[in-house]
Amino acid sequence: MKQILNFIDGNNERYLEELKELLRFESISSDPEKNGETRKSALWLKEHLNKIGFKRTEMFETAGHPIIYAEWLEAGEDAKT
Fold first, then answer.
1. Which pTM does this prediction carry?
2. For the purposes of burial, counting CB atoms within 10 Å of the CB of 44, is it exposed (0-12), middle (13-18) or buried (19 or more)?
3. Cα(70)–Cα(11) distance, rounded to whole angstroms?
4. Would you say the C-alpha torsion 35, 41, 42, 47 has a positive or negative sign?
């Protein structure tokens, strides 16, 4: 557990910068003028999930805004969920 906590502490600044990057999108889902920003934020999230190791990510179109789906497949079939 200590190793995990040390990793988190050592990457705190990176996590904060990634969060700030996501929050810069003006993705206001109730404002039709911001639909482009909402789509950009969904694409950013999909790319980010790929970058951090998710092997399967998909963007599904809906009548409204896109939905991002991701699976972490590395754990194996016997892993607890």
1. 0.80
2. middle
3. 23
4. positive
Please list the residues that pair with 70 across neighbouring strands: 57
CA distances from 68 to 4, 31, 63, 76, 77 (A): 27, 20, 14, 22, 23
- Split at pLDDT 50, 70, 90, the class of 56 is very high
In this model, does residue 79 exceed pLDDT 80?
no
DSSP state of 81: -
Q: Which residues pair with 71 in a beta bridge?
A: 56
Q: pLDDT at residue 12 above 70?
A: yes
Nearest to 18 by CA among 60, 54, 47: 47
